[in-house]
Amino acid sequence: MSIDSGVADTALKAALGVGASAAGKEFAERAIKSIVKKADSVEQIFRDDFKIDGQEMTVLCPESIQKFSIALTPKTSHLLPKSVKFSYGVPIRIEIRQVMGLLNLSDAVEITANGFKVKLNKLNPGELYILDVEYHIDDHRFLDSLVDRTFPRDVPHTSDESIRQYEMSAQLKHLSVLKQKYYNVNLRDVDFTVDIAVHQDVKTTVPGIFRQQLETLVEFSKKKGRSEKFKLMMRSLQLQNQKYAGKELDILENLHELFTPMKFKRFVDVLKDFHYSDCMRGSDFYDTLPFPTWPKSMKIVSRTDLNLERPAADGVLAYNHADFVSEIEKVFNIDKNSKMKKKDSKMQNK
């Protein structure tokens, strides 16, 4: 009895999908258990001397930091020096604040060789305090185990030719696992990166003669035989009499300015649940030249917050393609009106 290959393939993919999902949930469970282990230990140690009024876990995503916040009320006063010691890992930062007046009591906590300690004689009984303890997250997979981020393809969704829109979405995975814990869980500044293929805009806007001049320089940077080098020399001499000759580096410097974060962010809007954070220049289009030309893409970083009350976020990255192309045309002193006339003339000839 034979099994249809399509059915078998579908069954295999389904099995792999179930396996991957189960493995992801198992890893998330392990990650959550490890990340709350320290906080559980803190609670157990402090229970004799404090009333625990509330707890919160915040993950500072860009910094890979887990922050535990515990509301504590001392039960009794201590005139003589006495400390509660926690020795299950050295934090990177610790502070305790008195809620009334938001006073930071830096002398009431101290980082030790193997953890930290809270000095009970520095605290008043019946007063409410917030203890904040921060640790590094060692496993780089932790965030991916908790958040499902749908990255858009390079083909944007748009109904307006002047603007290209990229849809973004992020949501917490394994909510059932998270909700089993008694913490208020916050993920702060979840990163979301979109690559905008700007080289397409440059390619269609930069004059052909300028691209030829650059591509001749690219060919010079490669190993060539004697006859090929001679042809390139002749081609270079011909191009020296063309427009933009001798001005290439000045033009590239002005073009380079358009791809700096301060300049490029003017052509980008981040909408809905996300907010703009940063942009970075991608790898160079002509990567063999000893000087920068223009990038293949610009990487736009947006951020959002997720928690148990709002486990999903949707956003839109709007790239003002038309305005950016206009800025490129200014670099080359391209007359937009003359371009439109040529375009209309071609349409009429057709």
Care to give the gist of this entry?
The chain is α+β, with helices and mostly antiparallel strands and 350 residues long.
Tell me what the structure shows.
The protein is of the alpha+beta class. It folds into three domains: 14-136, no CATH class; 142-201 and 250-349, no CATH class; 208-242, no CATH class. The protein has ten helices and 15 strands. It has helices spanning 5-46, 142-146, 175-179, 199-205, 208-220, 226-239, 248-258, 261-264, 321-331, 336-349, and strands spanning 50-60, 65-74, 83-86, 93-98, 103-104, 109-111, 116-119, 129-136, 147-150, 164-172, 184-196, 268-272, 275-281, 298-307, 312-319. The strands form three sheets. The protein has an eight-stranded mixed beta sheet, with helices on one face. It has a four-stranded antiparallel beta sheet with strand order 9-10-15-12. The chain has a three-stranded antiparallel beta sheet with strand order 3-7-6, covered by helices on one side. Helix 5 (208-220) packs antiparallel against helix 6 (226-239) and helix 7 runs antiparallel to helix 9. The N and C termini lie far apart (62 Å). Mean pLDDT is 77; it is low at 1-20 and 340-348.
